[in-house]
Batch of 4 targets.
Target 1
Amino acid sequence: MGGPATVVITPPSGRSAQTAPLLDKLQSLLRTLERRYSRYLADSLISTINTRAGSGDFTRLDLESETLLEVADQLWHSSGGLFDITSGVLRKAWRFDATHIPVDVSQLASLQDKVGWEKVERTAQGIHLPVKGMEIDLGGLVKEYAADCAVSLLRDHGVTSGLIELAGDVATIGCQPSGAPWQVGIRAPQGGDPLGGIALSSAAAATSGNYARTLRFKGRTYGHLLNPHTGWPVEGPTSVTVIGENCLSAGAVSTIACLQSPQAAMTWLSDAGLPWLMIDREAVCSGPLAAEMGLSLT
Amino acid sequence: MNPLHSNSAFVRSLTRTLATLPAYQTGAALADAPPAFTEVGVRYSHYSEDDIDASSVIFGATSRYDIDITQLWIEAPVGASWSVALDVQNDYQTGASPWFVGTDQNGQPGVIMSGASIQDNRVEVGVATRYFWADGNAGLNVSHSDEDDYEALSMAFDASWNTAGNTRTWTTSVSNSRDKVNPTQGVIPVFVTNEALDTQSGYFGVSQILSRTAIVRVGLNYTYSDGYLSDPYKLNDQRPQSHERIALSTGYRHFLIDANASVQFDYRYYADSWGVDSHTVELGWAQHFERTTLTPYFRYYSQREADFFQVVADLNEPHFADDYRLSSYGAMTVGARWAINLGDWTLEIEGERYWSDANWGLYDGDPAPALVDFWRGTIAIMWRFD
């Protein structure tokens, strides 16, 4: 899934010999999910769906992929279309690693014809993308889903104390062996020391950021999150962290927050009713977690 | 309060969607918990028996019972671990029923009907509370039912708990009912006053998730009644003072991913101390659509007659009855349920048709002349809110 993974587990008492096989199972689980949902692997389910775009051929879905697409549908509805798993093609018009002419506006217009979750055909036969060149990307959900699956697998094998981190998203089982909650550091968008730590026990923390890849264009800095309605980068918060019962729910709330203006994001996060931390473009922190961590508040 | 328990419609809806995936079916997030919402519901059913065949009637009306059932309920969470519920039901029945079976001038059995002016109203009020803990829940239900000629007070306790990583659920329940029978004098003479009936019942069952797409359930129920068990509105009806019943019920659900549907199979075996035993088989197909589920079903029922049943009752026996419900017969039901989810609102519509025939059963026995066919329709609306 294109990111580092960290697993910390305390083996169930008397079962330390089973740790290595358990980690193998975990690795196998993550690989299986990657093989199914990575858009970079030619034989993945996602690549199959994308390759068949415009062909009229539907791709059958199982309960898992159907549910993940249903989640994507809910996020699309709840975000007013800002969260759109078809918007990935817009990246082709932007060069976040380029130093000159980062956007090809003419290409942007033609790419937008290939964007729009509302165009996607979902029936009992499966899913079909109606426009050739249209693509879906579940990357915004699958990493968090994988963390939740990992927690489920470890719990099923009797693990009562553990932590999984998949490229910044964290899911925990119980507390540390000492009984203290897990402490998870929040990365500062500008780099350097973490801003502080949040305590987690049997909970997950997901962070969505708009700072990892940026570009400057006509004197302004843009993050890599794109608005599917305009094709241009959103001018949302720099980073949002949300704590939830599971990683996917926390990630869904934080991702949608990052796609909105900072003001709208604050309203969205408050309405979601989960603990949150938002860092805006001026590096000002807000939200219940900011208060808990003693960070500067708006 | 759990700070991660969000009341936002978005998070709740997401949680509901994710609940279909195995990764979200274990752990604290989906442990037994009180309902997250208050639910208010109203249900109306109409039950209508077909007219009895005129050739089976020696005397009286051919029209039979109609029953209107209206139910209102509310269930609400209280604190982090409890819920309370109130349930009120009103049944209004009108029409005629078989009074007794006699013989016509040709010696053929035929029904003498009660006349078409019977009216009765029953009101039942039930209150329930339920406690939830991480691996299970337990509930207590008290209900009182009152009508002109019958009063019942019942109490039930049930508990269910999960084991084997939440894949196995054990359920048990016990209940007790104390009934008073005071039949009213109407168009037919009644010779019974101030009778009583006590009933105790117990159930034990288990359901097991077999795989991501299959679940099986089995349960055993035992019921013992002691007291007045005859039908006071039938002329020739004298049943034993006690009634033991045992029922074994099983069910299987299989979700078909490609079809987005579930196959449902249920079987129930019943036997009692009066010599009745029966088999019920039900097959259903729940087809899920985006916001609705349509479930057509078919049910077959076959019953062996009670030891003391006779088409025309022999009053010289210690126990006797000519009630068609105690005869040997078979029955078929065809119906469909349609559940429509509209956000916080749910609409349920159900209709079924029931036919019975002495020749459709698995057991021998003389055919009762008053076997019934009926229609039943139900509409229910439920509203959930914070």
Target 2
Amino acid sequence: MILDFSSSLHIVWALLPEIVVAVTGLVVLMLDVFQRGSRSAPSAPWVGPLAITGLVGAVLANAWLLTLEVPAQNAQIAVDGFRIAMNFIVLGVAIFGLLYSFDWLNREGQFTGEFIFLVLMAVVGMMLLGGTRDLIVLFVAIELMSISVYVLTGYDRRSRRSAEAALKYFLMGAFASGFLLYGIALIFGSVGSTNLSLVTSEIALGTASNNPMLFAGVALLLVGFAFKVSAVPFHMWTPDAYEGAPTPVTGFMAAGVKAAGFAAIVRFITIELAPAAEFWEGIIWWLAMLTMIVPNLAALAQDDVKRMLAYSSIAHAGYLLVGVAADSPLGRSATLFYLAVYAAMTLGSFAIVYLVAGKGDVRSKLSDFRGLGWRRPLLGAAFVVFLLSLAGFPPTGGFIGKLYLLSAAVESGESVLAITLVLTSLISYYYYLRVIWKMYFEEAPESLPTPERPGLAFGFAASIGALALLVAGLFPGHGLRTASRAGEDLVPRAAVVAPGAAPSARPSGQDPAASRASSNVSEPER
Amino acid sequence: MLSLPLLLQEAHAAYEPILPAWILLLPLIGAVVNGVGAFNWRGNKAIPSIVGPAAVIGAFAIVVVNFLAMRAAAPHDPAIVSLWTWMSAGDLRIGVDLQFDQLSMLMLLVVTGVSSVIHVYSVGYMREDPGYSRYFAYLNLFVFFMLILVLGANFAITFVGWEGVGLCSYLLIGFWYENREFASAGKKAFIVNRIGDFGFLVAMFLVFVHFGTLNYETVFAAAPAALAYGGAVVTAITLFLFLGCTGKSAQIPLYVWLPDAMAGPTPVSALIHAATMVTAGVYLVARTSVLFAMAPVSQAVVAAVGAGTALLAATIATQQYDIKKVLAYSTVSQLGYMFVAVGIGAYTAGIFHLMTHAFFKALLFLGSGAVIHAMHHAYHEVHSHEDPNDMRNQGGLRRFMPITFATMWIGTLAISGIFPLAGFFSKDEIIWYTGAYGYGILWGIALVAALLTAGYMTRLMVMTFHGENRTGADAEPHLHEVPAVMWIPLAILAVLSIVGGWVNIPDALPVLPAVHALHDWLHPVFEPARGILEAHGLHDAHSSPIGGGEAMWAGISTVAAAVVIILTFRALVHRTWKPAADSTEPTGLAGVLYNKWYVDELYDRTIVLPLLALWRGCWRIVDAGLIDGSINGLAAGTRAVGWIGSLFQTGRVATYMFYFVTGVLVILATFLL
């Protein structure tokens, strides 16, 4: 089928995965209300499978998008390989996040339809964030995602930590949204449109080259995104929010929100604002540097595994920023691949932490992991895979992902970033391996209760997650090929495909931004 | 399923291996099932009892079918079965290829046949052990690797098997790993074997450098043209290969691990450390006979080392009191004979002795296992902690264990070379050819060692089965014959020890019909090597170095052995031994022999202790000082920085906003300035 954006029905087709998820969310909410009425009781158990079914439906719809033939267009929604890949990642995060969270919800007696509804709404926001090409839609998407996640952070109403984390996250988030919105306003003010393709051509044509208002807008947009992916120095909320939030929610935010944030950065900054590269390149470079170094050092001092993982997730944002800073199709592909791998390992790690922590999420100290490997061998083995993958140890997906990021950085001449990535990864070995040490080489005292046996959904998710990481580490071919196709397929296609625009073909000594701008001029948007 | 006659009929025209992969797969499946069982149904005795022996007996059945097919087709060239390409890098291409020829077929028969018997025996011997399933997992895995070793069509695959059997040997020697001494024996075997493996590896590299391939067929076909006869290269290759053989087959200087390896369960000693694995070195020399034939220096070394080992080990065996130690040194000694044979170029004689030795030495070990089993049981009943292996504690057991007694005497007569048992034909052939090919000194040594063999074996029998019982009055009533599952294997091996030699009866013996079955069977395999030897002056003198023909010397040696047996018997049968606990260590020459010529002590002083001191120094200075110090310092430094960093994380939103705004201002400044 050829997509035709002059027909409103075709816009529905283009948005089908998002619509499926949104409708599923509404159905879950309504059915739950009808079934429970005003009683304050756990929801019926079929709510979970219903949501999973909806998400699987969205995965299918997303796969169907691949079959569409898409003309060059300036629609508000992009139908390209990158968006579809991002959708797969986000939907995967949602499915696995839900599978992991059921045990927690049942244990805490908080299994309700609202939780699932909020997750699904956040997912809609995340998907739109990776696909939209309009600043207004962008803002709506980011707020839909953020507000859902704020609520999820404070979902455990009985817990003071949860409430505190939610409030902090909300205050900081609102603060950051202010900057983001102001940035959008400045861009609109200087260009007269919220459609990014117009902004791009405006910059490319040089009419806005010395417009401080436009660049201030871009800078503030970047700040908003940096906050979402928790890049240093906009990361301060992260350890507190991640530590206080219900642990499955932490995993979901760490994987999903980060993925969506990176999707937005890749699309808005490196693609749409490619002509302004000379302005944001340095910023991204410094953000990547700081975000690799600071959290890796801070994580060393943590003796709480959950908080340590929070710092680890900030550090991973730094590694991912290296892929962005490479600013090449290879870098984008590496970012995609790493996002997928990162989602699998970080979801799994946080899920295991909540299982060990027990009711009320009380035991997440390093010493609470003593003897875990012997008491729950399968769980221990899965955690080892997740941790080694986070550290980037072969033969796991984390290793291949880092290798991919490194090769992208080196190819783009960012050797300082590459070296920093390697060195900070080395530091991170210490705090990841320390957990494994506790799990296998120290005995659990009698007083430490054995973690409960996980349920079927958890076991399924954890084993698939761990196996997938091993497969990605041992047979990375298929995943790498998929990522490389998706990383090269972004609208507007002309900007990417045009000769000279690809960084690998950059003539040395010439300003990359200038060469890209000139190629865009010579080959205007169709 | 294909029917057997059909398979044979098909094979008649040209030999094609039948179900070749299954010969390997069955033991492997057995190992996996039992390995899983060792974790999941540890208490279950039925599954290992069935799966363990069945896997090997199944492999034996396939081998027999293949043997019949090969006999019908009588192929001249080996049949190669390529399973898959293992590695391919540059010029190197190593396939997982199996070679079926007369030599590997004979080895297959011996390995799977003897293994089957010993697996059945193990059902009785190991049944009470808590590690029963684990035991069969290792034993099946051993058979799997041994078959790979035998079937490999190139050096690399043989090496895989070579290492694999070494691993299984280590696992089984240290099977009772709770006992520190036993675990150390396993480590000793492994480490000593590593020295030999180094030789094998170097030889393999040399072969690849000079031939560009590791396939036996290609290498042997190219060798006579590619390398100079007696040149440095072929000598180096063969000497390094032989270094590997001295490790695996327990020859001077690397024989020291085998007596200690008796720490493992006795069926393991019978299978791995007597009948199969330790003969791998002999097999390797026979397999690479073309290369050895081109290196006269290496040949002389092999033969001399073999003869020296045969004599040295035989002397030590005369003064040991542990029944298994006697048999272990006897094995070392008999392996020496085999190396003499393959060293002088009498390959068929070496393989012949390998086969018969597998029968009678397995028999003797299993018999000793039966004795130990009975002794252990009796001591267990009365809660005694005496050593059931020590012959000074035994004696007079013939009254309690008549079947074991009878079968072990058959084994003893066979190994002593008494007509018409198996050992007579095979050992005599080796001794005869040593003389006839002109190795006078080695011939003399071999004769002396043969007489010593008769002596120490008779001593073992007398101390164990004759005379008064020394078990102790309270333990004596508990001595019993072993169950049928253990004595039937003994009976089978006893029959083989009698008739096993009849496949090869020399022309020279009067009255008897000449039989050349084995010579004819192995002829295609050894033809090239024999051709090289004969072209370079090997000739059969048809008389011993001091005159006399084959029939005469055969007669002399069997009579001499019989005389030694009778004299030893008469000298010892009325002697009284004190039980082990009351005995003092022997003195004089007996003491030297009892302490094995102090070779272990010599190795300890000259090699082990200096190396240990050196490594300890390295560890103190380099490891503990340099490496640990710098790593620990670095870690402490980074942790300190991390702690300072976490001070900024105050938990207050206002602080966070301050950093946020600072960040924004910095970014805006760089954008706009």
Target 3
Amino acid sequence: MGNIRDRVAVIGTGCSKFGENYNMSIEDMIVEAGFEALQDAKVEPKRIEAAWVGTLNSAFAGTSLGDALKIQNVPISRCENYCASGMDAFRNACFAVASGMYDVVLTLGFEKLKDSGARGLASTRLHPLLAWGVTAPNLFAFAANRHMHKYGTTKKQLALVAVKNHHNGALNKKAHFQMEVDIETVLNAPLISSPLGLYDCCPTTDGAAAAVICRADIARSFRDDYVLVKGLGLAVTSGAPYFQPGFEYDGFPATTLAAKQAYEQAGIKNPLEEIDVAETHDCFTITEILNYEDLLFVEKGKGARFIEEGHSALGGKLPVNPSGGLKSSGHPIGATGVRMIYEITRQLQHRMAGRQVKNAQVGLAHNLGGPGAVGCVTILANP
Amino acid sequence: MREQPVGIVSFGAYIPRYRLSREVIAREWQEPPAKGEKAVASFDEDTFTMAFEAASNCLEGLDAARVRSELHSVFFASTTPPYHEKLTAGLLATALDLDRACRTADSAHTLRAATSAILSGIDAINAGAVGASLVAAADMRPAEPHTGAEISFGDGAAAVLLGAENLIAILEGHVSINDEFLGTWRRDVDPYVVQFPGGFEGKVGYPRVIHESVSALLGRLDVKPIDVTQLILYSPNPRAPQAVAKRLEMNPKNQLADALLGEVGDTGCAQVLLSLARVLETANPGDRIVVASYGDGSDALLFRVTEAIASRRNRRAVSYYLSRRRSLPSYGKYALFRKLMKTEPSEGSSSPVILWREVKQDLPLYGEKCARCGMVQFPRQRVCVACGAKDDFTDAKLARRGVVHTFTNDYLLPTPDPPTTETVVNVEGGGRVLVQMTDAGPEQVRVGLEVDLVLRKLHEGGGLKNYFWKCRPRD
């Protein structure tokens, strides 16, 4: 098997305002994120040889990207892999560059959720009976209740994730929410899907994010502070764990499997010591606690203590979600994985001002799709 | 014609868990308090789901292979079937996993529907056409708000298995009377049951016809009124059958069976079968039981209980369900369950094609067992989830009980009874299902809770009844 390490570089990143973008169309958001990334890379649109675009269901095909940016007559593929659509688009683009087929490639993810008035994501299983009516909050609440039962994790510990990520989000002008919340507010919020209350859930958000990548050996011709792709992992487990005999529901093995692939490629033996900053998929507060365990930062069952002891806070041992995560940035599905690449790249470039993680050299981005079924992990590092 | 006796092999009943206190109804309309409560089908129940649970209880404990080889006749009796055009007896036979070579018929349009079905079943057995016949009756009649009918009508179901062997009660004889009478009716355009005002039916219809059928039955079989252990009369109200019993020279106090009006309500065509189930739960060998229905005439049947009753008494029937109740907190909830108010439609879609293709999986709840590694899995797969073997399975009908592995209470899904409790259940004997919990409050669910799987109406998307399994705490 091959290794992606040091073969691809990120040379430009962009991100639209995330939020209830009632005044923006899909085109507006793609143009905002796409051109920011192109300008950041100092690359003209005509220099793009191929593109990968990620969206769950806001549009179809490569035309969604090409028509907005007028990047046309080149190969553009649309990638859909549940909530990991964006990072998987990035991942496929990296492999295309590493293959030697293309030198400069654009990846972009977007989602437009607020035009429909939907309050959240419904079940993706299109069946009249099986898993009928099941929502995204349900799928993660199953894990929360199991984790609480098995390891004694408390609602208060879940709330700490929301408090931390709201704090970080308040430092991020592009985030959906820029507001601090206190623990009482989180604990007293109305229930959405027990034990998850309103503040345990990420919002439904519009947004787009983009990254320009190129062959590592030509990266310096674009900029000095490029960032290298060190590892890319993707694992797909059953999309119906609720029918899977023996699925424990105290975490998501797809995350661990993807992380192990990425760590091996990057040569990471001890993630907690070797990673300086992480963006992980906190679609719900419980998910971030599970991520600490599933990404092997801590042992299974110790995730709640990791947040409680402050290790994942800005200034902690391994700051997680300095952007505010999905919780505060919002979760425009296809955009999220690319937004994480944007955040980690700029953290490694030390461009994040108020939320900058000191001396960050190695970063991790983790995108999770479906009922914990699609785990995608990217390791980025400075040259 | 068979020479040997025919009669009842087994029985079962079902009463919805939700009960509406008559005090709550009276308070809603600022009327003087009324006594007792009535059983109310939950928003996910209808006459099919109620009849299915009663029929399942009736067949419980019998040799399944023998049932399949002998039970070739199913009747569904109701004045309130789920579909005006589409068979419910067939749905019952499918969900009960009976042989395809099964006669299926719905008996409808009158409160006599259940007893008429029993007589048809008996005739088929007598003729040697079938070995056994199942009659499942259920009703949930629509009552106009702020009327006596609303106070009186309740929901419920009961079932009897008829046959010629292992009888717990022998049918000694029967009489049917046809009597054209307009006392109670409901046209297609009527949202509620219509009753002709005043005492016409109470004075002229009911007492005359039901007395005629029972006295003809006793006369024909030469049975003295004193020799009837229990007289089961369809009862529109508590007083009417007492007058009939007296006129029949029976003692209403100890011979007239409880019609369950106080605790369950008038369950329509299922009422006499529910009473029969109640009586059979405590019957002794030699007891003589008269069952008389009423509606456009009357059917009267005389049963004699046999020694075999001892082995069949102990089952889920009336006493089981009477003690398992959950109060409807308000009239508003009842109004929502019964769709008495207009609400925002949120039904979604369905696919008759998928329902057809997966009927074996979704109604009798068949999963599969891998022939290579033994893993039981649901839904049905082509490739084993555990060992990857392709197309190497045997059928595995999932058990009807399991344990909650994890759960959540969902407050967003539109439902008349929020929150919706979603559970991941490890089924006893293998297989895992994702099902909603029903007839329970959010405080009842927990990891490790033991549950029964019950068939319910999941939704009406696509303009049809989408039936699927849910779970209910076992208590």
Target 4
Amino acid sequence: MTRFACLALAGAITVFAGAAAAETYTVGTLKIEDPWSRAMPPGARAGIGFMTIANTGSEPDRLVGGASSAAGRIEIHEMAVIDNIMKMREVAGGLEIPAGGSVALKPGGYHVMFLDVPSSFVEGSDLTVTLEFEKAGDVTVVMPVGSIGAAGPMPKHSGGMSMGGMAAMQGQ
Amino acid sequence: MARKKSAPSARWISGVVLTAVALLVGALTLGWYRSEVGDKGDGLLSTPVTTIGGEFSLLDTESRPFTDKDLAGKPYAMFFGFTYCPDVCPTTLWDVSQWLEALGPEADRLNFVYVSVDPERDTPEQMKSYLSAFNPRIIGLTGPRENVDKILAGYRVYAQRVELDSGDYTMDHTATIYLMDAEGRFAGTIAYQEKAENALTKLRKLIGVE
């Protein structure tokens, strides 16, 4: 059981470390949870960012864009793989966050698109990004950068561990 | 910044048309696949056919000529993408890198080939830099537009340039990994985000160790 206790402690420390990086931000009636990004291969010019945005208010709002020193431009895009074909489009007019609802920006769907990225995002670093909402205004969030293949904002309890291991191996 | 879109309707119409074309191509390909290729019963690899694939002449990441002849004698997995692709391409390359690790020494028995659908931006130097983040076994190919178009046609790959309002462009493209046997015949596919276990089973079948 000592071994189990050690593992539990290690898990708790990991979660604590993750929580310190992945925060919840509030602006107006919006809550932005767990913003995160992925490392980019050297020479890649487009980066990606994800988060969940909840709207506790009675009016819908829209994520219309953003700005960051890490990118020349930020757009809001939607991606989908339909019949084995990957398609990506800018979300015209911004991404609606419905009143009383929430929208997940996640791999394979809506995302923040970083364009004209001068220097590839590096795993373990943080991006400072100002998000622009139509009604709530601007809010600055920190996006921790995971591995190129990261599936979520912090290592998962299963599956994510092997990815972390691989990242460590590749980093050597 | 929030900008008023000047012609959202035109955007949507072109989007709808593109989607319809893509769906038609997809449906036709799938119908063809079911009727012509069939399934050997194991649900993994099909009877190899020569109607997908064929000759090509491209450049590797050192700008050296690289043709279908350079792949002869070994099975290979071929997939298509572009270095400005933010999600599908890097995650697929990441998955492939993991499969190569998992295959261990067996990885010597096949090739992985990544072909750019965006040669205007993906120079050999750009491909070299980009692929340095992944397993070094992955062969990166690009080349003159007409040569790229030839391989896209041969492998029946859908690739379409889509303009963005900002003046940039993105590429819609087939996200499937093609599995080809040692004679360059199409033998099956691995779908985007297919489970690693399935993918590895197919790869091991392709190289004849399972």
